[in-house]
Amino acid sequence: MRAFARRIWLPLATIANLGISPAPAADAGHGADLARRWCASCHLVTSSQAQASADVPSFASVARKPDFNPEKLAFFLLDPHPKMPNFPLSRTEAADLAAYIGSLRQ
Ligand code: HEC
């Protein structure tokens, strides 16, 4: 019975969390993993990265823009930019990436 209840409640809690919470707590550490995996071929995603494409803004420079806003960035990332391969990012992944980029802001 307890195991059954857990099986029902876990997915329900997850759905409720996705649906109701306006800004799910984003995980910048996970965003950093995603950035290294998916974005580092073009963007400088960490200060220790040696090389990326010329003409592609580094994530640190994105973060330093005066109008930087993690919500807007997450929204932008849901709709892949031109020249960027079509990443099927989930809302959570987009928010995590935005949180990571935001963490580079100083
Ligand atoms: C194939 C190369 C490529 C990959 C991979 C790539 N990007 Fe980009 N990205 C670009 C280019 C080129 C631009 C400049 C946009 C333009 O000029 O159209 C850009 C622009 C951006 C911008 C806007 C910068 C600004 O000045 O406003 C953000 C944010 C961004 N990328 C995030 C990401 C994230 C997050 C990932 C990984 C999920 C990613 N990109 C993967 C090539 C890439």
Automatic annotation (TrEMBL):
KW Signal (keyword) present: yes
Any one Pfam family here would be: Cytochrome_CBB3
- Residue ranges annotated for the Cytochrome c domain, each copy included: 26-105
Protein transport is among the record's keywords:
no
Q: Which PROSITE patterns match?
A: CYTC
What organism does the UniProt record list as the source?
A: Bradyrhizobium guangzhouense
The signal peptide, as residue positions, is 1-25
Extract the InterPro entries matched here.
Cyt_c-like_dom (IPR009056), Cyt_c-like_dom_sf (IPR036909)
Please state what the protein is called. Cytochrome c
Tell me which UniProt keywords the record has, alphabetically. Heme, Iron, Metal-binding, Signal
UniProt GO MF annotations: electron transfer activity; heme binding; metal ion binding
